[in-house]
Design brief:
Number of strands: 10
Structural class: mainly alpha
Number of helices: 15
Strand order of the largest sheet: 1-2
Length: about 500
């Protein structure tokens, strides 16, 4: 019998979550820059192939060097992150491994090997292959990285909104019934587009920041201006796409994860024409309804509505948390009865299985001890959402100004804007981390939305073992990050235009 049928030590759950969150946060420092720099260096090499100007070749090689440094560290942290599903979350892996493992396997076999193959040509193929083939290799390296992101985000989106599967009580596993429903769910497409475009924005901002640093020190003027031009243009386009996909994501969340949306707004009591909170005490009437439903009169439930149950304007009845918890406990008991009777009493097993199937939609609620557990940390989700949106909005303005004044040849005189461009680099990372806090903390207490809470997903380990590995990984990742920053800053400082 697998251990997920029992709730384990809450302290073990907390430390396991902390370890996974720490690993994911470090990993996400590298992934968006990989996605973004792939576009920057691809554009620069494309210009080189079209113009035959060796300057653009040197510019592309400079950014490829930084791409390679970042790519190597990102792979190291990503591998550890995937292994943690088996070490720290083995009950989760057993329960949904048939589904969750498929996109991760495809990512490793297809996408990762694709980018690993073409990255070799990109770095070592200069003057060994034709310009067109080398350019294709550069872009295909970026395509491979993007495809890796696709399959990873498919897996993550499925955790947010599980589809295309059925629970098999015989094997105590959820089994995939429709691969295409999992791989091409609307939520997965939206999440992929939103996440990848935010990565493009990160790469664009990083290129701008380096270019501004060069100009402030009076060095590498042509490279600096080219980096700012390409980076700002990439960043502006990406930021607009982030806004568009974020709008679509808000609608998806309102439909499939209403508690996350309510927490992100600190909305206790919902209703029609729900207001959008800019900060506590300052609201825009009706704006939340417009964002969540594209109808200013649309109904948006609040935290208390979701806990107490409500009837939507279209007549749909949403059961209370207590009702769902009761049905969840009934599903768990039916599952236990089925397991006990399936060999000894087929008739009783059939009755238990029927009861389980009738209540399986609320299976995960059977593990919830109190309805208060269903509310994520509102203050953290609320402020993270505002950091993400606020920083992203400011970055869009800064990037647009940098592009505008660079095109008009006036940028070098505007030192305040150059400093703003440099400070945009930590700001874009802050926005990215805040976005993932909203996505992951906002769906607590669920490892898989409505299906499996984190308290039932962890491996049966000692708390001391998880604590020990937490601090080991913390030290290792910090050293890796410090090494990357040092190597990249050295590469930037020693860069000289020929």
């Amino acid at each position: 019998m697998v251990t997920f049928l029992n709730i384990l030590d809450p302290q073990l759950t907390d430390w396991s979550r902390a370890q996974f969150a720490m690993t994911a946060c470090y990993h996400w420092l590298f992934v968006p820059l990989t996605l973004g720099l792939a576009v920057v260096m691809g554009v620069m090499e494309t210009v080189y192939v079209r113009t035959r100007d060796d300057f653009w070749k040197r510019a592309a090689q400079f950014w490829q060097k930084l791409f390679g440094i970042n790519f190597a560290i990102g792979v190291a942290t990503g591998l550890i992150l995937e292994f943690e599903f088996g070490t720290n979350w083995s009950n989760y892996s057993w329960f949904v491994g048939d589904i969750f493992g498929a996109p991760l396997a495809i990512e490793g076999i297809v996408a990762f090997f694709m980018e690993s193959t073409f990255i070799a040509v990109m770095f070592f193929g200069w003057n060994k292959v034709g310009r067109g083939f080398h350019l294709a290799s550069t872009w295909l390296t970026g395509v491979g990285a993007t495809l890796s992101a696709w399959w990873i985000l498919v897996a993550n989106s499925w955790m947010q909104h599980p589809v295309g599967m059925a629970f098999n009580p015989e094997t105590v596993r959820n089994e995939m019934m429709d691969f295409f429903a999992v791989a091409f769910a609307p939520e997965a497409v939206t999440k992929f587009c939103h996440t990848v475009t935010s990565g493009w924005m990160t790469g664009g901002v990083f290129a701008v920041g380096v270019g501004c640093w060069f100009l402030l020190r009076g060095r590498n003027r042509r490279l600096a201006l080219a980096s700012i031009r390409v980076g700002a243009a990439t960043g502006v386009v990406a930021a607009l796409l982030v806004i568009a996909t974020g709008d679509r994501s808000g609608i998806d969340i309102a439909r499939t994860q209403p508690m996350k949306l309510a927490a992100a707004e600190g909305l206790r009591q919902g209703g029609r024409q729900a207001p959008f909170s800019i900060v506590p005490g300052i609201e825009i009437p009706g704006m939340l309804s417009l964002l969540a439903t594209h109808d200013i009169d649309g109904y948006v439930p609040g935290i208390d509505n979701l806990l107490d149950g409500y009837t939507a304007p279209d007549g749909t009845v949403r059961p209370s948390a207590d009702e769902r918890m009761e049905r969840g406990r009934k599903a768990l008991q039916a599952f236990r009865d089925f397991r006990a009777a399936r060999k000894k009493d087929p008739a009783a097993a059939a009755v238990a299985r029927q009861t389980l199937e009738e209540n399986v939609a609320d299976f995960g609620y059977g593990y919830i001890g109190s309805r208060d557990e269903l509310v994520p940390p509102v203050w953290l989700v609320y402020w993270s959402f505002r950091v993400m949106v606020g920083a992203g909005s400011v970055l869009l303005v800064v990037l647009a100004l940098l592009w505008w004044f660079e095109r008009r040849g006036r940028l070098e005189k505007m030192r305040w804007l150059l400093h703003a461009g440099m400070w945009s680099v930590p700001a874009v990372y802050l926005a990215g981390q805040a976005g993932w806090i909203v996505a992951e903390v906002g769906r607590q207490p669920w490892a898989i939305q409505d299906l499996l809470p984190v308290t039932a997903a962890v491996s049966h380990l000692s708390v001391a073992a998880v604590q020990t590995t937490f601090f080991i990984f913390l030290v290792i990742f910090t050293l890796l990050l410090a090494a990357e920053v040092r190597i990249m800053t050295r590469a930037i400082r020693t860069c000289r235009e020929e």
